[in-house]
Design goal:
alpha/beta, Rossmann fold, binds NADP nicotinamide-adenine-dinucleotide phosphate
């Protein structure tokens, strides 16, 4: 049985993908924080899909010790991971720091996923035609308005308080894209496909933290979670997808910001992430190429 791991697989876009992959016969590993929501969904999938194998782990991805612990447990009970779907994300209305002192959205969406990927890569390498899919966002474009470094460790300062969380959210989504491009290069020789996508503006719980007036204005333009998950499921399962290191929207490759294509920014983020997480053996794509 092939295994799919989905972070943020208990709500919104990830939940739709979890149900779809269970129906396609995948064993599921779901990671999110809320145990009630996670256990209820696991029950529901077992009920709706006879024979479904679903494990839920309650983990906060911004808590790096917890990420290391869950990865170790998964390595102990799983032979291989064919689909690693790095989907968890959130929008915090107020500036908030993780346990490690990083801006919370960045710690969850980028650093937590960077660490989880590092810890589970041996299992991904064991799978046949493995794929890694990262949920980024069109919001990565707004990060062009701020300096990427050194803002990562510090609050994004903005005279308009309402804009600061949006800029931090955009930065976390730009980090997703920079990571995907570097990781795709890094894993090219292993035949591991790595892609990012924007799901569209999707009516999910993500919007519960954005200002009410803004929500009312954009609600008519939002799509439902089924539609939002379509490109994620496509990238995970469609045999026609052969590209790696790309950014997709509505099943097509889409344009990304100039910054997301900056080699310098990619390398700096990779190095920063390794240092922040105490990782020494992930490797630098550029160095590996040079020494090949
Ligand atoms: N909705 C949109 O319009 C939209 C647009 C572009 C991109 N996206 C991206 O799509 C992805 C999925 O979002 P969604 O819209 O489906 O939102 P959602 O319904 O709020 O789902 C987010 C999922 O992530 C989990 N999560 C959040 N923080 C976490 C943490 N610190 N550790 C572990 N799990 C965490 C949540 O579970 P818990 O709360 O229980 O942890 C939930 O399962 C996100 O990366 C988001 O940035 C969404």
């Amino acid at each position: 049985m092939k295994t799919a791991l989905i972070t943020g697989g208990t709500a919104g876009i990830g939940r739709v993908t979890a149900l779809a992959l269970a129906r396609k016969g995948y064993r599921l590993i779901l990671i999110a924080r809320d145990p009630d929501k996670g256990n209820a969904l696991a029950e529901r999938i077992r009920h709706d899909v006879p024979g479904a194998d679903v494990q839920f782990y309650a983990v906060d991805l911004s808590d790096f010790e917890a990420v290391r612990a869950v990865a170790s447990e998964i390595r102990g009970n799983t032979d291989s991971i064919q689909l690693l779907i790095l989907n968890a994300g959130l929008y915090t209305r107020r500036h908030r720091l993780s346990k490690s002192g990083h801006e919370f959205m960045f710690a969850t969406t980028h650093l937590g996923h960077f660490l989880l990927t590092h810890e589970l890569l041996p299992l991904v390498r064991q799978a046949e035609n493995p794929r890694i899919i990262v949920t980024s966002s069109v919001a990565h474009h707004v990060a062009s308005l701020i300096r990427f470094f050194p803002g990562i460790e510090h609050p994004t300062k903005s005279r308009m308080r309402v804009l600061a969380p949006l800029l931090s959210y955009g930065r976390s989504k730009l980090a997703n894209l920079l990571f995907v491009r570097s990781l795709a290069e890094h894993l090219q020789a292993d035949g591991i496909q790595v892609n990012a996508f924007h799901p569209g503006g999707v009516r999910t719980e993500l919007w519960r933290s954005t200002p009410g007036l803004f929500n009312r204005m954009i609600d008519p333009f939002l799509i439902d979670a089924e539609e939002g998950a379509d490109t994620q499921i496509f990238l995970a399962t469609d045999p026609a997808v052969s590209q790696s290191g790309q950014y997709w929207c509505r099943r097509r490759r889409d344009l990304t910001s100039l910054r997301s294509r900056s080699r310098n920014l990619r390398d700096r983020l990779w190095q920063y992430s390794e240092e922040a997480l105490g990782i020494s053996e992930f490797g630098h794509p550029q160095e590996e190429k040079a020494s090949a």
